Amino acid sequence: MKLDPDAKFTYSGPDSGVGQKVNWQSKHRDVGVGSQEIIESVANKRIETRLDFGPEGTAASGFDFNVTGGTTNITWRFKTDVGYNSMMR
Fold first, then answer.
1. Is 61 within 8 Å of 67 (Cβ atoms)?
2. CB 10 within 8 A of CB 20
3. How does DSSP classify residue 20?
4. Can you list the alpha helix ranges (DSSP code H) found in 17-64?
5. What residue spans define the domains of the chain?
6. Are the C-beta atoms of residues 51 and 36 closer than 8 Å to each other?
7. What are the angstrom distances between the C-alpha of 75 and each of 6, 14, 56?
8. Within 10 Å of residue 49's Cβ, how many Cβ atoms?
9. 15 — phi, psi (to 5°)?
């Protein structure tokens, strides 16, 4: 939103959990078009999402939650195919 305050966002699916989806559209080249959908959710453990960046490709992402005492550590995972030359991407 900071890169393009004029970007358009639409939300669909349930208010929370599996099936919740956000779509975005922007003329700003660093924002582009895409969507992110929650495909799995385990309360207080993890969230798995599917990302679609339009012509830029797709990715899988997830968040793991580790509650210890009064703190929660979050690990973010991101997996995508960067093609044959990852250094150019």
1. no
2. no
3. -
4. none
5. 8-80
6. yes
7. 30, 25, 24
8. 21
9. -65, -25
**Residues in Cβ contact with 52 at an 8 Å cutoff, skipping those fewer than 6 apart:** 34, 35, 36, 58
State pLDDT tens for residues 10-65: 999 999 999 999 999 999 888 999 999 999 999 989 999 999 999 888 999 999 99
pTM above 0.90, yes or no: no
Residue 59, beta-bridge partner list:
51
**CA 54 – CA 89 distance, rounded (Å):** 16
Structure-block tokens of residue 27: 């003329």
Predicted local distance difference test score (pLDDT) of residue 1: 82
Tell me the C-alpha distance between 10 and 8, whole Å. 7
